[in-house]
Amino acid sequence: MALPLVLREGEDVVVQPPLSQAVGYVVVVVIGLVIAFIMVFLTKLLKRTVGEDNKKTEMFMTANRTVRTGLTASAVVSSWLWSTAMLGSSLVGYVNGVSGPFWFAAGCSPMIVFFAVLGISCKRKIPEAHTLLEIVRIRYGTAAHIVYMFLCLVNNLIAVANMLLGASAAISAMTGMHIIATTFLLPVGVALYTFVGGIKATFLTDYMHTFTIVIILCYFSVKAFTVEEVGSLSNLYDLVQAAGLRNPVSGNEKGSYLTMTSKGGILFGILHICANFGLVIMDTSFFIKAFSASPKAVVPGYVIGGIAYFAIPWAMGTLASSVVLGLENNPIFPTYPRRMTSSEVSSGLVLPYFAMTIAGKSGAAGILLITFMAVTSTLSAQVIAVSSIISFDIYRTYFKRTASDEDVIRWSHYGVIFFALFASAFSTMLHYVGVDLGWTLYMLGVLTCPGIFPTAFTILWKRQSKAAAIVAPLLGMATGIATWLGSAYALEGEISVASTGAIVPCVWGTVISAASPLVYSPVITLFKPENFDWADFRNEKLAFEVSDTASITSRRASSVARADIEIQIQDPDQQIQLKRWGKIATYWALATFLGHWVLWPLPMYASKYIFGKGFYAAWLVIAIIWLWGTLFVVGFYPIIDGWRQIWDVWLGIKEGRHRKTKGDESDFSGDHTPTEAVEEKGVLETTR
After folding, report:
1. Which of 269, 277, 433, 457 has its CA 20 to 30 A from that of 608?
2. How far apart are CA 96 and CA 101, in angstroms?
3. What's the per-residue H, E or C state across 408-462?
4. 566 contacts: CB under 8 Å, gap ≥ 6
5. What is the distance, to the nearest Å, from the Cα of residue 302 to the centroid of all Cα atoms in its chain?
6. Three-class SS string for 186-254?
7. What distance lies between CA 113 and its chain's CA centroid?
8. Which of 360, 323, 120 lies closest to 230, judged by CA?
9. Neighbours of 448 (CB within 10 A)
10. How many other CB atoms are there within 10 angstroms of residue 587's CB atom?
11. What pLDDT score does 380 carry?
């Protein structure tokens, strides 16, 4: 029998896990391995049919830079569809009311869209890059390279710890699995398919996982209103309004959950947007996905993905927290007759309890599956990012400059295994010192934000000096940590897990950590400004050459990737197109920030408006419709956009059967493969 994992402070009542430990192990281990083997099979199928050879570094790390818009958009949504996106948005909705999920969503979408500006700029200035750190090293040298390597690794580690802590707590509450077993087993399948398939396996897994997750979320968005105790939007409004009267929220207008005028909400919004700018810009997995996308796919992929993502935390966070707040005093709620404890809320159990309330064991199984898929999908991106740092920025840079494809792939594999184990061990350590999802969600910006502006300046501002690039982020981190700890001591009278996890110290620390380098960098640059020539980025060849011994199929795929890169560099029309995409990306980034973070929420905060029944219904209906639109973007758009490669794979399979009947075992190394047919027509791009 499963043991009750979540003990209630000062209560004799416990919530029994609705599912058995066996179910948990089946999902975490067996389904994880099944997905891994499916990805391994697809990887081999793509190699056999369309020449995508993951034994070649350009394919393993950048998918030959040919990923189309649909798959890019799906991967972008997946990159931010952390388990914490669903668990965390429900958490802040429970604490702050309707403002919490909105600020969670608004804290993500603007910087995802902004990343299109950085991505297309990299495509134009340094199209052969594999990682952000290669750009830093070429421009500023070894010292800066090491500093930014530290910043990126800290970012990846704290991001993985954040998602593992939340996912492990949720899975343990659903099944009774030991939380440490969950923490170590979750990365197993991820490490396996990333080990074999590289970034393309990550893209494909992102697609499969994200599609499944959004289908389940859309199911919950309908199922909630079939429960008799909820029934309708009108009744749900009455339930939430009554919850505000029973337990008014300090800092909210008249204590209501139904208002954007929430001190806690806007503080979280400020903290979240700063922290997420850091998480995006200092996350090398975002750069890898941008480098992997074709030039025409970067901007639309990130813009569509960023806007589509907005609906997930907004819709599910609002709906889940509303149902939990409204039904907490109802016998069908898991913790009845008491409210959720602070430890339950901070562990991210609002969404699991919502699912259990509306769908019982089926709901618990749904949460178990989406939590597993969300954490493994985002873990895959983080693992491949750290793997790229270890192989390219450590091994190839400092140990073997002449490293071959085989050498780099081998060290990429070492990196996958090492980081999966280290991240699990680090998350376990945080758990045993009393850190949970709520703590990491609030404080992670202190560590992830110092590199925001120096990194953006590295790509966008040719005047930033080497000294500014090195000193500004380190000084910003020191200033942010000092502010965070000092604020915690000043406000709480001590420095502890509880005081450092409070929202006000975390807001101050995060804002100072993010904003101070914006002052430090220009001031330091004034002493000795540079005038960097962007053309210098192209002096160092980063893409791998194709060896003479490579198979015909592999050589074909890699040469096309190199041809695409050469076209970007040499073709004036291509450069004009990339500049045009850069302007479009800038306009979209500004529009998304102004719309999602300024023009929409801030007037509502200032108006002190408390939602009426009609307004609340419209608010939730729009969010749910937007969520179903996201289902189309992540599920069906990649299929529509990528039909040509799907068709090529099918032709390759048919051709393989035809050859097999003739006894030909050449594995498509001869003539007439689908990709070669395109080349014979003079088209310098792979069939995407």
Report:
1. 277
2. 9
3. HHHHHHHHHHHHHHHHHHHHHHHHHCCCCHHHHHHHHHHHHCCCHHHHHHHHHCC
4. none
5. 12
6. HHHHHHHHHHHHHHHHHHHHHHHHHHHHHHHHHHHHHHHHHCCCCCCHHHHHHHHHHHHHHCCCCCEHH
7. 13
8. 323
9. 31
10. 12
11. 74
Amino acid letter, 569: I
Q: Map residue 252 onto helix, strand or coil.
A: strand
According to DSSP H, which parts of 63-141 are helical? 69-80, 83-96, 99-106, 109-125, 132-140
Check: pTM over 0.70? Answer yes or no.
yes
Question: What confidence score (pLDDT) does residue 198 get?
Answer: 53
H-run or E-run covering 466: helix 466-492
Phi, psi of 261 (to 5 degrees): -80, 85
Q: In order along the chain (688 residues), what is the average pLDDT of each group of 10 residues?
A: 33 68 86 76 70 53 62 82 83 94 92 87 80 87 92 87 82 86 79 59 74 93 93 93 92 94 92 86 79 80 91 95 93 88 85 92 89 79 80 84 76 80 86 79 87 91 92 95 94 86 91 94 92 81 49 41 48 78 91 93 94 95 96 89 74 62 37 37 36
Cβ(65)–Cβ(291) under 8 Å? yes
Supply 216's token pair.
Answer: 């389940």
- Residue 80 contacts residue 217 (beta carbons within 8 Å): no
Burial zone of 146 (CB within 10 Å; 0-12 exposed, 13-18 middle, 19+ buried): middle
Nearest Cα neighbor of 376 from 18, 34, 630 is: 34
Listed residue (83, 628, 6) closest to 343, CA to CA: 6
- Between CA 475 and CA 512 the distance in angstroms is 11
Residue 423 contacts residue 157 (beta carbons within 8 Å)? yes
User: Which pLDDT score, from 0 to 100, does residue 384 have?
Assistant: 75
From CA 262, how far away is CA 270, in angstroms rounded? 12
| C-alpha pair distances (Å), 119 with each of 56, 148, 583 | 23, 18, 12
Task: For residue 661, give the amino acid letter.
Answer: T
CA distance 88 to 342: 14
Q: pLDDT at position 563, please?
A: 45
- Nearest Cα to Cα of residue 482 among 520, 450, 452, 509: 509
Are 309 and 108 contacting, i.e. CB atoms less than 8 angstroms apart? yes
Q: Give the 3-state secondary structure of residue 611.
A: coil
Question: How far apart, in whole angstroms, are the C-alpha atoms of residue 226 and residue 222?
Answer: 7
What are the beta bridge partners of residue 259?
Answer: 610
Closest Cα partner for 162 from 73, 72, 91?
91
> Residue type for 140, please?
Y
Q: The domain 21-35+68-292+303-399+411-433+579-640: what is its CATH number?
A: 1.20.1730
> Torsions phi, psi of 569, nearest 5?
-75, -45
**Which residues fall within 8 angstroms of residue 495, CB to CB, at 6 or more apart?**
485, 488, 489
Please, what sign has the CA dihedral across residues 352, 357, 359, 361? positive
Cβ neighbours, 10 Å, residue 655? 17
User: In 3D, which of 250, 253, 267 has the Cα closest to residue 503?
Assistant: 267
Q: In the prediction, which pLDDT does 560 show?
A: 42
Contact, 412 vs 476, CB < 8 A?
Answer: no
The region that residue 10 occupies, defined by phi over 0 for left and psi between -120 and 50 for alpha, beta otherwise, is left
Please return the burial class of 439, using the count of CB atoms within 10 Å of its CB with bins 0-12, 13-18 and 19+.
Answer: buried
**Sign of the dihedral defined by the CA atoms of residues 570, 573, 577, 582, in that order:** positive
Residue ranges per structural domain of the chain: 21-35+68-292+303-399+411-433+579-640, 436-534
CA proximity to 151, closest of 497, 533, 458:
458
**Residue carrying structure tokens 């792979």:** 686
Contact, 344 vs 660, CB < 8 A?
no
Nearest to 71 by CA among 578, 644, 650, 639: 639
